[in-house]
Design a protein that fits this description.
Strand content: 25-35%
Number of strands: 5
Helix content: 10-25%
Number of domains: 1
Radius of gyration: 12 Å
Distance between the termini: 41 Å
Structural class: alpha+beta
CATH architecture: Roll
Strand order of the largest sheet: 2-1-5-3-4
CATH superfamily: Beta-grasp domain
Order of helices and strands: EEHHEEE
C-alpha cells in the first residue's frame, strides 16, 4: 500500500532534495523502516535509541496527529498522506 510522506526541508538531504516520497507500510513504524530503505540515514533523525519517533517530531496521518490515534502503531491505508513536522519552540 503506497503512502505519500511529506518530508520537512531539514530532512530533504536524505531524500535527494525531494519534498515528498512514496513508500509502503502498514503502520508508522513500518513506514519509518521503509523510509530508511529508500533514504539511508533518515531513521536516525526520525527515531530515538529505542526505535520510537523522536519527541520533537510530530507525525500526522491525513492531518490527524498520531498522538491522538495509535502513536507509532497508527494503521496506514493505501493513498494516505503522512506529514513529518518538526516541533517549533521559542518565546
Amino acid at each position: 500500500m503506497a503512502v505519500t510522506v511529506l518530508i520537512p526541508t531539514v530532512l530533504q538531504k536524505f531524500t535527494s532534495d525531494r519534498a515528498t516520497i512514496e513508500v509502503e507500510g502498514a503502520n508508522i513504524l513500518e513506514l519509518i523502516d521503509a523510509l530508511e530503505q529508500a533514504c539511508p540515514g533518515i531513521k536516525a533523525r526520525l527515531c530515538d535509541d529505542s526505535g520510537k519517533p523522536r519527541r520533537f517530531l510530530n507525525f500526522y496521518v491525513n492531518s490527524e496527529d498520531i498522538r491522538f490515534l495509535d502513536n507509532e502503531k497508527t494503521a496506514l491505508n493505501d493513498g494516505d498522506e503522512v506529514s513529518i513536522v518538526p516541533a517549533v519552540a521559542g518565546g
